[in-house]
Amino acid sequence: MSGFDADRYSRQTRFAPLGAAGQEKLAATRIVIVGCGALGSASAVALVRAGVGFLRLIDRDLPERSNLPRQLLFDEADVAEGLPKAVAAARQLARINAAARIEPVVVDLVAGNALDLLAAADVIVDGTDNLEARYLVNEVACRTGTPWVHGGAIGAEGRVLTVLPGRTACLRCLVPDPPPPGTLPTCETAGILGSAAMVVGAVQAAEVIKLVAGATETAGRMMAFDLWSGEWRTLDLTPLAAAGCPTCRAGDYPWLEGRLGSPATELCGRDAVHLPAAAGGSVDLAALAQRLAAVGPVTVNPWMLRADVEPGCQLSVFADGRVIVGGTRDPARARVVVARYL
Ligand SMILES: [Zn+2]
Fold first, then answer.
1. What is the spatial distance between Cα 268 and Cα 131, in angstroms, rounded to a whole number?
2. Which residue in 36, 187, 248, 313 is the catalytic one?
């Protein structure tokens, strides 16, 4: 007696590398998706349709109109209703596949809860929008020996890397130090095509299915594409894996242990939240001002920059990397805004 609906998955089990044995394993697999935006939506839809047995969705945000071009799990009614993304996503996924157990978790993934939330996963999927959360996921994965599938999309470009801790290169092997805040483009500053994010989410889901089926030969190769130029590449990261890094080889977990990262604090008596400088420190305010000018009015002087990035929400970025998010008292909300624009 199999643990899955044989008719429902017949086209999938006929694919020989997966087969009925792989489908059986999918039904018994526990997946955690961190971030329920464009990548998390696409990978969750693909995985729940593919028949994974358990899916935990972690997200700190609410759906907004500007999410709708690329975040497959949400519609206009969800935006109007204002349910957290994880909850709205779980509701939609349950309609797609009633046999899947879906667990929404509405939190900001931070050092204090990451191990609890991620440790029971068979595979972790990266649907996050910021490097800090990715380092945290990488460290939990390395510490617990859990495979994880990194994904990223910006503009028309995407990349996916499957990390098998101890066997392949990890995120820190690839990016040893976080770049200074504000130097990387984000979806808000550089834009994004929904189709690029959907490709990344679909590839991530395929990587999970391969891992569950035991097909690990291609893990550790970074897949990268640009839908606009039509280029698709695979980068062999074996040389990086051979060298390793302090996290995947020596058990150094600076983000998980709180030595790196930025605890957000509410500013007393003000409708604002202060975030200390992240690792990387000083910010090129002039360059940041140029990028944020596409988003809203910006004023800049040698010490700080002020930008109206969203209605009622003002970012003040200091040259030393500190940030104040005006218009909210909620640290999680402030971190969402910072991840979006910086
Ligand atoms: Zn490493």
1. 28
2. 187
E strands along 167-312, which residues? 221-226, 231-236, 265-266, 272-275, 298-300, 304-310
248 CA → ligand 1 middle, Å: 4
- Residue 175 alpha carbon to ligand 1 centre in Å: 9
Total-model pTM: 0.84
How many whole angstroms from 17 Cα to the centroid of ligand 1? Answer: 29
User: Distance of alpha carbon 251 from its chain centroid, rounded?
Assistant: 23
Catalytic residue list contains 268: no
May I ask the CATH class of domain 265-341? alpha beta
| Third-level CATH fold of 10-250 | Rossmann fold (3.40.50)
CA distance 217 to 79: 41
Spell out the domain ranges in the chain: 10-250, 265-341
245 CA distance to ligand 1 middle (Å): 4
Q: Mind listing the pLDDT tens digit for each residue in 174-229?
A: 999 888 777 788 887 889 999 999 999 999 999 999 999 999 999 999 999 999 99
Write out pLDDT tens, residues 73-123.
Answer: 999 999 998 888 999 999 999 999 999 999 999 888 888 899 999 999 999
**Residue tagged 């009015």 (tokens):** 297
Q: What residues sit around ligand 1, an ion, with C-beta below 5 angstroms?
A: 170, 172-173, 245, 248
Give the SS3 label for residue 290: helix
Does the pLDDT of residue 1 top 70, yes or no? Answer: no
Q: How far is the CA of 259 from the centre of ligand 1 (A)?
A: 18
* Average pLDDT along the chain: 92
